[in-house]
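Our consortium's second objective concerns turning raw sequence data into structural hypotheses that experimental partners can test. To show how far this objective has progressed, the report includes one record in full. It was chosen at random from the queue rather than selected for favorable results. The single chain below, 485 residues long, was entered without modification.
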Amino acid sequence: MFHDLIRDHAASVSASETEPARRAAVVRLLDYYQHTAATAAAVVYPYEREYQPHVPAPTTAVPDLPDENQASGWINRELGNLLAAAHHAADQGNAEHTLHLSAILSRHLHVGRYDRDAEALHNRALAIARGDGNKAAETQALNSLGDTHREGYRHQIDLAGDLYQQALETTRSLGDRRGELRALYGLSIVHGRQGRYERSNAHLQQALDIARAIGDRLGESNVLDAFGELRRIDGQYKQASDLHLQALELARAIGDRLGERYALTNLGDNHRLQGRYQAAGDYYQQALNLTRRTGDLYGEQAALAGIAATRVQQGQYEQASVLNQQCLASARAIGNRRGELFTLIRLGEVRRLQGRYEAAGDYLQQARGIARAMRDSDPQSEALIVLGRLHRDTGHLQSALACHREALDLITGPRYPHGRARAHDGLGHTHRALHQHDQARHHWQQALDILAKADVDQFLDAEVSTAAIRKHLKDLVPDQESRST
């Protein structure tokens, strides 16, 4: 379509006009798209204005976009032309238009998960910026590419880390505090996914200091929400909820719907992990309602996933199965590999609980393959815990031991208390089945200690609860007595 517009626009110039005049006509069209896109983005994403380039007003008339509905409608209708304009500008030597459109469209492409388009556009901008020695534009493109690879269809977490690190070094050399904040936040998420929690925490603290120093409320909201996730990983649930609530308040104050959705979903996760299913469901429903109003397909899938996980833990397996199948189809349709991965694990657990062991194994093996490829330790350990339970249920006790031990090895240090408690519980059950009661006692006591330290009565399901584990310990007999009976 854009090339048709160029032809028509150029044809509107008199045939007697010179080639420079024709080129000027194309530049006017590029100016129109660039300026109108910037205007629309400022209306839809007002909290991003400080991150956007300043572009001059065009000499041609531009549409009036007074509210979010009209502005977002214009961007969505014209997105194909905007992308084509950016690439055409690069081809024709109008590099500045490409750089500007890459920056202007970055948030919209990320929120809408137009990952392939984002990757192509930001790579083009990066090549231009490096060729021109434009360090500021280079850091913008590096950060945008980091976002795309961190969350996009490729989910190349190591590559995302490399891109953010390059951006961080360059922003610091330029004194670009906003770019530095964005790179630090991205690196913190990458390190968290890789299980490098101390690094993640350190980067978040630096990012928070910058956000507050320069008054960047978007950055502050994002960092507080990420801090909440780290505190949840530590088992510090009250602190986690406090941080998510602060992030939610900030996101709502600045109109950041994506940040609001993240905070709501994280609050749901936090309550679900503590067995507070009513509160979890309320937050997930708020997130689901928000995502359906805004057309956030990734967010809708995440909220549905939270509701599905809650149904599993409540023993409502048929409802959980239906919801998880919806989540799986949605995750695959939009290319959400991480969402697909966790849904496969939940489906494996549901099928195990229903006694459909072959189907459970199929889902869990698919999940393990994706988790290994993504190098994400949390879902790897979760898949191993459920697989260990499946092996125990089907009488493959040595395989069950191996899965739970490998899960513990993946969970480093004191973090992920819910994962460690469930792995120890799995080892307790398996050792008891092998009549190794002293070892069973050791692992159940470990699980009980983790529950006590986290100040909760259960993690994820009633099977790993203070009451259940105490009953297991009470029923155990010493190994010598066990062997003599």
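The partners drew two points from this record. The first strand starts at residue 458 and ends at 459. The two ends are 82 Å apart (CA to CA). Both points have been shared with the crystallography group to help prioritize constructs.
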